[in-house]
Amino acid sequence: MAFMPAEGAIHVGIGGWDFDPWRGSFFPEGLAKTKQLQHLGTRLGATEVNATYYGTMRPETFAKWRESVPDHFRFALKASRFCTNRKDLREAEASIAKFMGQGLTELGGKLGPIVWQFAPTKKFDADEMRAFLAMLPGERDGLQLRHALEVRNDSFRDPAFVAVTREAGAAIVYAHHETYPELADLTADFVYARLQQAKEAEPAGYAPAALDRWAEVAKGWAAGESPAGLAYASEASAPARPREVFLFFISGDKVRNPAAAEALAARLA
């Protein structure tokens, strides 16, 4: 199935593009690993890059990625763990500068949001989080940057967290996960969602009714709505305006994530 752009700037994708169980199902048998990203770009609209969480890339690498995919494709990058795995986030400035200086703007307009992922042990502190957000640059090399925070501790179920991120214009990652907090509060001009409950027993990772539901949620987000039936931490409503949506099928029974993404993209096309 070839990728068709979704209505309302909805980018549907998966995590990465190098996973051996996808060979022969999502990737054709015999396809060189060096061609996997190019193939992904013909099938879906985005990918979340995990490698940037663990190590530093070269500018040439980002440029090569950019040239491998069509114009509609977007790369969401996980920020370095050295920025977020800290007792005090106010000490992250040097690590943030190092991460931002590795050449990621070589992706140009294909750069999606930067995801700042926090450990389950990291608890919410309003002053600390406000200071951290103030260190995240809004642009680099003339390219506007967007930031999304993925939190994994229940202490973030707090209206104050919503207020702090909304003030900074950063997004709270909506994580559909068995144990992590689900926070659907809209705090930026885009939405970032990670659906992490794919099941191998389902051919498309999720039951058809569940995919129908996520399609409606994604359309609602794109239209500027705060969809009913999701978990919100704050009663303060977000402005109702169209938003760009980034939705990734991640983790769970990973082998099914490409099928899930394609099934959702088909519902949105």
The multimeric state of the shown protein is single chain
Overall, the morphology is globular
Describe the main β-sheet briefly: 9 strands, parallel
- The stretches of 5 or more residues where confidence is low (pLDDT under 50) are 1-7
**Share of helix among residues?**
25-40%
Tell me the domain tally. 1
Q: What is the number of E strands?
A: 11
Tell me the CATH topology.
Answer: TIM Barrel
Q: Taking Cα atoms only, what radius of gyration do you get, to the nearest Å? A: 18 Å
Second-tier CATH architecture: Alpha-Beta Barrel
Count of helices?
A: 9
Average of the residue pLDDT scores:
95
CATH uppermost class: Alpha Beta
Instruction: Tell me the structural class.
Output: alpha/beta
CATH homologous superfamily annotation:
Protein of unknown function UPF0759
> What is the H/E string?
EHEHHEHHEHEEEHEEEHEH
| Strand proportion | 15-25%
Distance between the termini: 12 Å
What is the spatial order of strands in the main beta sheet? 8-7-4-3-2-1-11-10-9
Structural features, described:
The chain starts with 9 loop residues before the first strand and ends with a helix. The protein is globular. A 9-stranded parallel beta sheet has the order 8-7-4-3-2-1-11-10-9. Strands 5-6 form a two-stranded antiparallel ribbon. With 269 residues, it is an alpha/beta fold. It contains 9 helices and 11 strands. Helix 8 packs across helix 9. It has a single domain, classed as TIM Barrel (Alpha-Beta Barrel).
